[in-house]
Amino acid sequence: NNKIYAAAVTPVVTNAVGLTLNGDTYTSGTPIATCGKHTLVITGVGGYTQTIGFTVLPTVINVTDGGVYAVAVNPVINNAVGLALNGEAHTSGTQISRVGNHEILITGVGGYTRSVSFTVTESSNIAADAKYMDSVAVNVPNAVDLKVDGETVANGTLVDLIGEHTLTVIGIGSYERKYEFTVTPTLTVSEGQVFGKPVKILLIKATMLLDGEEINADTDVSKHGRHTLVIKGTGDYTETITFKYSNPNLSLTLFISIPVAIAAAAAAAIVFLKRRRVL
Length: 279
What we know:
- This protein is about 10% helix and about 40% strand.
- The protein is mainly β.
- The strands form six sheets. It has a five-stranded mixed sheet, with no helix packed on it.
- The radius of gyration is 41 Å and the shape is rod-shaped.
- It starts with a strand and ends with a helix.
- Residues about 250-255 have low confidence and may be disordered.
């Protein structure tokens, strides 16, 4: 009496006048597989009765209570009276791929219930703390909702604003997971680089300051000397690059003009001295 069985049981009662199972006529030796709380009543002569209560547990395959799964699951529960997934009727063996926290409620005879809770996680192409050059397209199948920087986006949306971003994956049952990532720019200049000819700064999707002045279009740098490019993106993203344009023609001009100037000054001095001697 009051035993619990993890599989079907086959009660054998050979000398009874009558048998009932849960109020219905029962034949000795018939397997009892349906999960739930069962009552077997044995009747004999002279008003004799004996009641045996026992429980048959549900057989749950392919999912465990508290389990976390990175792929879709196919729970199989064949001996239940009824199944509900997140409050909706569910058929044993049906694939569950939706991201989130799920609950299967199993009902059996005699008011028996059991819940199995588990989580299906997302497959995301965006990794936490990852950096992507120029852009990245969000690819997270089976999510209930996706948000980038707080704004709802469709799966496949291209994120191309330079800077720091947050992807929020929302699933069933209050499931939420965040991924911080950064989109970095491809630039035509790099830190410490020296150019021997004018260089073009290509406009990107960020605020760009060249020597303290904001630029809003592709810009040629042709002024001799050091330059500073500051990039400000979303979040706290900032990048500062110092580079130099060294004009070879300017250096050659200086190389030639200085000796010429010295020679001219020397010639002028000689002429001056000769004039003084004449006087």
